[in-house]
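Fill in residues.
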């Protein structure tokens, strides 16, 4: 069985650092989209040691940011309460797991690389090699109406279609 996300087995401290990283990178990606050709050279983001090594240096793909700008903005706003420490991280909280999983999927699209936590069991083809298209991600897996950005009236899609293992 293909499990997309298995973050629930990770410790709270690891998840806290991961949420901060994802939030900071989402914010940086949105800023990069606003000023893609800024004068100052941009150093590539560094993965914190809680993540497995990426296949290459992380770089923001502005065209990919443009494709997911609205979901990225909404998800980063939702994650801010956990990234700032205003609300505690609870791996048993389905809202937390779904929102963080969705933000990670969007950031993987932006970076065109997987962001896998050390010790997390995840297939090598979970997003980038998977037949899942971005349109499917935005249309079915991430229906923003349930996340607060408004979907057409009367639409009722599941919050996320992500399988999360619980141990």
């Amino acid at each position: 069985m293909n499990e997309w996300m298995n973050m629930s087995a990770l410790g709270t401290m690891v998840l806290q650092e991961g949420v901060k990283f994802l939030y900071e990178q989402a914010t940086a990606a949105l800023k990069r989209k606003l000023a893609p050709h800024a004068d100052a050279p941009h150093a590539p983001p560094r993965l914190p040691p809680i993540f497995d090594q990426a296949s290459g240096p992380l770089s923001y793909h502005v065209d990919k940011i443009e494709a997911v700008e609205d979901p990225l903005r909404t998800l980063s706003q939702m994650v801010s309460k956990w990234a700032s420490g205003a609300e505690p991280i609870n791996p048993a909280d389905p809202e937390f797991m779904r929102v963080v999983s969705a933000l990670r999927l969007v950031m993987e699209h932006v970076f065109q690389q997987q962001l896998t936590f050390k010790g997390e069991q995840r297939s090598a083809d979970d997003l980038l090699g998977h037949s899942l298209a971005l349109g499917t991600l935005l249309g079915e897996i991430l229906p923003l109406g349930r996340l607060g950005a408004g979907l057409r009236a009367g639409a009722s899609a599941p919050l996320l279609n992500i399988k999360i293992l619980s141990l």
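Confidence is low (pLDDT under 50) at residues 1-5, 128-133, 144-167.
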